Amino acid sequence: MRLIPVTLFCATFIAFANGEAFQYSSGWSPGQSTKATPSANTPASFKAARGTSGGQFSWTSLLTSGPIGKLFTSSGINMTERLAEAQRQANDLPWDDRIPMIRDDNFEQLIFNETFATEEEEESRLWFLMVTVTSSQRTGSSAIVDQEFNEAYNISLNQNSLPHVRWGRIDYLNVTRLTTKWAVWRAPMLIVAKDRGKTLRFFHPQEIGAKAHLLHTFLVEEIWTRRQSWTGPWAPGGSREDLLDKFAIFQEKLYFYMSKIPRWLYLILSGSLGSLFLNLFHRKKPTTIKPVTTQSKPIDVTSVQQENAARAGSSGVGTIREGTRNGKATRSKW
To answer: What's CA 143's distance to the chain center, in Å?
Structure first.
C-alpha cells in the first residue's frame, strides 16, 4: 500500500522525462555487412537501458549510481553486468539488415507511397512481410522462422527468381500503428501485401512450412493466391477503416509514452495494484456477536402432579419436584 504513491510519482516523472531518440537503419546497400547492427534493430526497451550522452536522461546512470545503485549493490545485484548482458542480447538478433525494418514512421513511404517507374512494375509489386517477436523471445518459433525467412531471401537473390518481391520485417513489440491498422494481434505472422498495402493476405508459418525452400516456393509458384484477401468493414477500403486507423494512431501515441517506462517499474506497479485490488475484493466483513437470551418455560403444575401420581401408583418411587434456581424454573427427580 505504501508503494503506490511512490510508483505513481515515478510513472509521472518518466512520462515527461527526456528519452533517447530512436535511430534506425535506412536499409541495405551494396558492400554493407549483413550482420544486424544495434542502431537498426535494437528494441526501444534495451535502447533506453543504454542511456544517452550530452546530459540527457540515462537509465544506466540512474540504476548504477546514486542511492538506487547503492541499493542494488548492497543487495548483491550487479546492475552494470545485467545491463551489459541485456545490451549484448539486444545486439545479437537474427535479423538481416538487407531486409528493411517496417516501422510506424516509414511504412507509408515504403509501402503506401512507393514510387514506380512503370505501371507494370506497380501491378506486379508484392511485399512479403515477416511479423516477429524475436526481440523478446530468443528461442521459440519466431526465432526459427526469422532464420528461415533470411535463408529464403538469400535463395531469391542467388536465383534472381523474385525481382518483383520486396521483403520486410515488422517487430511486433515496437510497431504499434501498422499492426493495429492491419489487425495483427499475434506473431509470428507472414503477410503478403499488394496494391500498396490495400490487398492483404495473412498466413501462419505452420500453414506454409517454416523452411526456407518452402517459403521461396510459396512465392515463386504464387501459392498465396489460393487464399482470399482480407475483406470486411475493418479491412482497407472498408466502411470502418477510418475508425481502426484512428484507434491505431491512439495506440501509437500511447505506446510512445508507455515505452518510456522500463519493465522493472511495470513489475512494481503491477505488484502494488495487485495487492490493492486483493485487499479491496477480499476484505472480511466485520462480525458482531449477538447476545444469547434464554427464556424459561412456565411449568404446568397440573401435568406434573398427574405424572407424579402415575409413577407413584406404578412403582411407588420417583416423584418430580418443581422449583426455581437463579430465577429459572427447574424439575428434578427424587
So the answer is: 18
138 band by pLDDT with thresholds 50, 70 and 90: low
Mean predicted confidence (pLDDT) in 26-41: 48
| Chain segment 174-186, per-residue pLDDT in tens | 898 899 999 999 8
Query: pTM (2 decimals)?
Result: 0.55
pLDDT tens-digit series, residues 229-277 = 999 999 988 888 888 888 888 888 887 777 676 666 666 667 666 776 7
- ω into residue 188 within 30 of 0, thus cis? yes
Kindly report the three-state secondary structure assignment for every residue of the chain: CCHHHHHHHHHHHHHCCCCCCCCCCCCCCCCCCCCCCHHHHCCHHHHHHHCCCCCCCCHHHHHHCHHHHHHHHHCCCCHHHHHHHHHHHHHCCCCCCCCCECCCCCHHHHHHCCCCCCHHHHHHCEEEEEEECCCCCCCCHHHHHHHHHHHHHHHHHHHCCCCCEEEEEEECCCCCHHHHHCCCCCCCEEEEEECCCCEEEEECHHHHCCCHHHHHHHHHCCHHHHCCCCCCCCCCCCCCHHHHHHHHHHHHHHHHHHCCCCHHHHHHHHHHHHHHHHHHHCCCCCCCCCCCCCCCCCCCHHHHHHHHHHHHHHCCCCCEEEEEECCEEEEEEC
Identity of the amino acid at 295: Q
Determine the average pLDDT of the residues in 187-192. 94
